[in-house]
Amino acid sequence: MKKSVIALLSTMFLFAVTQAQAAEVVGIWETVEGKSHVKIDKCGDKFCGEIIWLKEPNDKNGKPKTDINNQNENLRGRQIVGIQLLKDLKQIKANEWDNGEIYNPEDGNTYSSEMTLLSDSKLKVEGCVLFLCKEQIWTRKK
């Protein structure tokens, strides 16, 4: 009986630690070269991320940058700040998310995506086309 209680408590503790680690991806992350900040949050049972800040928010005319490279012409007028950059990332392990998408406003394309929380302050974000992937390491801001 004593061993059963200890095993149950150990299992509950490990579950709590795993859940706490998984929640750590939620927050504000700085992208490569400090170009933007992305707020990652729970979106239903998955995770998503929105651009909330740009290092260079305005175009050469002093107006807020818009999504001029979007493949969908109807979306080219929307502002970059506020765009959902990440979507539909499903947690597959304590610190890994997969089967999502990442939008790249620099080329107007959407790629399959996955993320891995490397530490409290580092997040690896990958965008892939077929088996060709590009990864970035983002740094936590908050």
How are the elements arranged and paired?
Blueprint lengths: L1 H22 L3 E4 L5 E8 L2 E9 L29 E10 L2 E9 L4 E9 L4 E8 L2 E9 L2
Antiparallel strand pairs: 1-2, 1-8, 2-3, 3-4, 4-5, 5-6, 6-7, 7-8
Structure description:
The chain has a single domain, classed as Lipocalin (Beta Barrel). It is 15% helix and 46% strand. Strand 5 and strand 6 form a beta hairpin. With 142 residues, it is α+β, with helices and mostly antiparallel strands. The N and C termini lie far apart (44 Å).
CATH architecture: Beta Barrel
Spatial separation of the terminal alpha carbons: 44 Å
CATH class: Mainly Beta
Task: Tell me the count of domains.
Answer: 1
Shape: globular
- Strand tally is 8
Counting DSSP H or I runs of 4 or more residues, the number of helices is 1
| Helix share bin | 10-25%
Q: What are the secondary-structure elements, in order, as H or E?
A: HEEEEEEEE
Query: What percent of residues are in strands?
Result: over 45%
Residue windows where pLDDT falls under 50 for at least 5 positions: 3-22
Overall residue-averaged pLDDT value? 88
Summarize the structure.
With about 140 residues, the protein is of the alpha+beta class. It contains 1 helix and 8 strands; from the N terminus they run H-E-E-E-E-E-E-E-E.
Tags for this model:
15% helix; Lipocalin; alpha+beta; 142 residues; eight-stranded antiparallel beta barrel; disordered N terminus
